[in-house]
Amino acid sequence: MRLRTIVLASFGLAAMAAFVEVAQAQEAAQRPSSQQQRAVSGLNGKFSLEGGAIGSNSAGSSALAIAQGSITAPLGNSFGLQVDGGGAQAFDTFVGGGAAHLFWRNPQIGLVGPIVALMAGGGATIARYGGEAELYKGIFTLRALAGYQSASLPSGPAPNGGFWQGRVIVYPIDDLALSVGGGQSAGFSTGRATLEWQPDFVATHNVLLFVDSSVGDDASWRVTSGVRFYFGPEKTLIRRQREDDPDTEFDCEMQISGFSDIGDSKRKGYEDQIKATQDPRRLPGLFR
Questions:
Q1: Helices and strands (H, E) in the chain, number of each type
Q2: Does domain 2-274 have CATH number 1.10.287.630?
Q3: pLDDT tens profile 117-141
Q4: Rounded to whole angstroms, what are the CA distances from 243 to 43, 90, 262?
């Protein structure tokens, strides 16, 4: 019942945004056409590669490699659809995931819509159902994400429950984004900081360099750096993130909580194997 309520509420937010757009249609129609912007400027995509490390008290540490991409398309003038996909390797385990965003957006105001995401690997799964929203104000973007998370682990039941995230993004210059944020996923708390820079010395102005970091419960942490390639029209970073693609949901928080659980589950499995070999009842040749 709780999951259904959250999903219905998310779609309700998108529906209310649609009604707001209709209510503003007459006023918008009287403005010069150059001031009217679509939710998504045109079909576009992105692909990124990053590497670093991840760890926690219970799971230890591991190298981390991630590849992910997105395709975003306009749905009429006021709506858009984005599909994400990605894969990551850590703790000798590969996980893959994806997400779908359906959203209303006015690049001068903000974004709102439902989202569904799934990550699986190493016998574990994490699924999320909820909604996202963004508010644009000058050089600042406020981003919020909330809903319900269900998960399973190979070692047994996993905590399920609500999740939420909040982020503040500031653009000191049009091609530099600095962000901080935090949230909880079924009781697992995280904090995050990110730096993104789209240098103008690259000929196509479609290449971005970034550093991403996160810390959380159980002394968990994650640090990566990488490069992202954009496919679509050339534009500044602030315009790209408000006119083209929303944030990708195969994100830092899902990975740090998921990999920490997988690493901890594997560690417990290894300990059980060691204990079994040390148990006299499992060695009848030595003890009779």
A1: 4, 13
A2: no
A3: 999 888 888 899 999 999 999 999 9
A4: 11, 33, 36
